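Milestone M4 deliverable, item 7.
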Amino acid sequence: MKFINSDLEKNAVVQRIELPGLADYKNVFIKREDLIHPEISGNKWRKLKYNLLEAERLQKKTLLTFGGAYSNHIYSVAAAGKEYGFKTIGFIRGEAYNPLNPTLSFAEANGMELRYLNRADYKNINSINFQNDIIKQFNDAYLIPEGGSNSLAVKGCAEIINDIEIEFDYICCACGTGGTLAGITAGLKNTRNSIGFSILKGGGFLKEDVKNLIKNYNGKEFNNWDIILDYHFGGYAKINYELINFIGDFEKTNKIQLDPVYTGKMFFGIRDLIIKGYFKKHDKIIAVHTGGIQGIEGMKNKIKKILASHLSVS
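Output delivered:
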């Protein structure tokens, strides 16, 4: 399959960055996974890579998956389907959108058939019985879990560290379903530390999920990783003025966009932990930019309201 184009992965360069308010701290670097592909961005490329090869091996014609209305995963699966010749079906959490938001509009424009599951039914999407029932309806479908996180995704994300040429002490990523953190941790093989920043309120369950993803991938357990639960800003896609202001300062300083759902929260957390002494002055930190810039468009109205509210108060 032409999908395996290792040259694209060379775009994921590592560069030094400056965190707002920490100009003297010179040991933070960013790995630009967001530059791998314009639409199959960052960790979604890594997660889909081996899943697409498996779908092709099994001669499946349809990719079937799940996600929220602003999901980077839904966006990327739709793009991958169009580019590599798969039909795509996305089961979306909640009620039908009319009009479609920017994420779902892009997915539909790229050929994805959108179906909606009420929130009660959506809670069952990881149930084997539920998945088997869906597969029966779509005999030619290859099922990819929500967020793309399965053993093949872990295999792809384990490759994130392969081309990092500098020595480092910590590597960090945002954590939604745990697949990226599981892959990075498996790739490190207990040599250095990995940290996930949960973007979910009450994300403690992710620790067990990551542990299981690693074990299902290679049968091993590692103790060189953790998930920080303190920087979700109220939960998935929840933001406030402090986060928006930080992201704006980061972009002005580094000329790099962050999304407010994932990478913005991670970098905010890294800076706060440096200030609090969690990271030491000599520690070298690599933060993985997992893409998701498409999500900014869907958050614009919320950002405008928060900024307007802040201005009216001040």
